[in-house]
# Entry
Amino acid sequence: MKVRIIGCHGSVEPGYRTTCYQVNERFFIDAGSISSGLTPQAQIDVSDVFLTHPHLDHIKDLCFLIENTASSTRAPLFLHSTEAILNDIHDHIFNDVIWPDFSKVVLDDVNQKPILQFAPLPKSLETELSGVKISAFPVNHPGNAIGYLLDDGEVQILFTGDTGPCEKIWQIANSAPRLKAIFTEISLPSRMDGLAQVSGHYRLAQLLEDLRHLKSTSVPVYIAHFKAQFMRELLDEFHQRATPQLKLLHESDEFVFT
Ligand SMILES: [Zn+2]
Ligand SMILES: [Zn+2]
# Structure
């Protein structure tokens, strides 16, 4: 399975883009930088986005993606997530106030399909796309938030999305026999325990503690979502305390897991 990092930070500044991962050049997980990080042609080709939660840093670029590429020749853009998460995005963003409701816009006279389509996951929270089984699970983050386990029959990859300490993540990781990578997050320096708890984010100290629940010590754990305003402190802490299992993500990183 291929994973390309389009954006991997928790805030926006020149040089820092927010969460967006491309999988197998076929679909995306989160859309924080799906227009600011992709060429115009690549934006036209986006057809499926799986969203972890409705926070702005994970969805904001959907607005520009759909507007940049709205045309009668564009294939519909499918947004996948739980019904609750999609309803939040529909009600609060694509509501004809903050941004047009593109799920009502039909540009293709022949097919008569809206260019934006909300595609709720079934109750089982499992679906399949182009040979990849995608299973969602709830994580510990304010509002509605989920992570995803991807399985192409050969390898499994776990994306936690934004989360604070969450036992479920380690249970799923431990029961995934072909797990090749975990993509998770650290947002704040370890000294900011109070804020991390209220905002539902991992700190390095807590993640190191929770990693003791992970049976495998060889599966790489990739870290995203550093907040730019604490970058110096986060980097210093990471370089001093992180174990070799933890790897810091960078925009434009590409991985092939076999
Ligand atoms: Zn976030
Ligand atoms: Zn969030």
